Amino acid sequence: MEHTLIPITEETVFRFECIPGVACFNRCCRDLVQALTPYDVLRLRQGLGLPSGRFLERYTRTHIGPASGLPVVTLKPADEHTRVCPFVSPAGCRVYPHRPASCRTYPLVRSLSRVRATGAAVASFYLLREPHCGGFDTARERTVRSWIEDQALRVYNAENDRMMGLISAKNRMRPGPLPADAIAALRLALYDLDAFRARLAQGNIKEAGPLGEALAAALEGEDLQLLHAGLLWAQRLLDR
């Protein structure tokens, strides 16, 4: 039996809960390829108290997105045979407060499209019903809106939409493969923020005008501010 994808709205009521006692608890943390957004990486490495470079080396791999041509970071499984998440334990997720957006969103699927006339981004939601998932057999009811709030998804969605904007810009301005040096620079600005900050401090990255001002301010700011500046710099890099 295959999965079912059901269109829903934020007011749709559904039953779902993933808790110890559900027969399949933790099983969805196996046999997976888990892509991480730049904001996912930021939150995970902050939660683990690791420098960005060490987190990326210890827990991730970098690929090239077949559709976007941009660097994509995925979690390195703890076991190559079972492809189990490195953060899962018998009691559940060891990094639960900082878990990635895709883990928070399930069993929902969120897609983003743009209105051609205005360019405004519009989110659509679907309920992913998989026959092996026992979470749907629980009694707790909730709306899509309450699920989004309970899982603290508003900030993740907002930050990840910035990355979707960069992907859209890449497909528009630089379709096809990128040179290796551009891939390395994009990985630095989007995922390895400590190294990006160091290059800014050393004067190895120089920009004039508003972008230069944003980078200078981000150098002294928090990681999220630096990520926002990194996304702007990445788009400028693609536009050259």
Architecture overview:
The protein has nine helices and ten strands. It is α+β, with helices and mostly antiparallel strands and 240 residues long. β8 (108-114) and β9 form a beta hairpin. The longest helix is centred in the last third of the chain and has 21 residues, at 153-173. It has two domains: 4-164, no CATH class; 173-238, no CATH class. The protein is 41% helix and 18% strand. The model has no long low-confidence stretch (mean pLDDT 93). It has helices at 38-48, 52-59, 101-105, 144-150, 153-173, 180-190, 193-201, 209-219, 223-238, and strands at 4-8, 13-15, 35-36, 60-64, 71-75, 88-89, 92-93, 108-114, 121-129, 141-143. The strands form four sheets. Strands 1-9-8 form a three-stranded antiparallel beta sheet, with no helix packed on it. Strands 3-5-4 form a three-stranded antiparallel beta sheet. Strands 2-10 form a two-stranded antiparallel sheet.
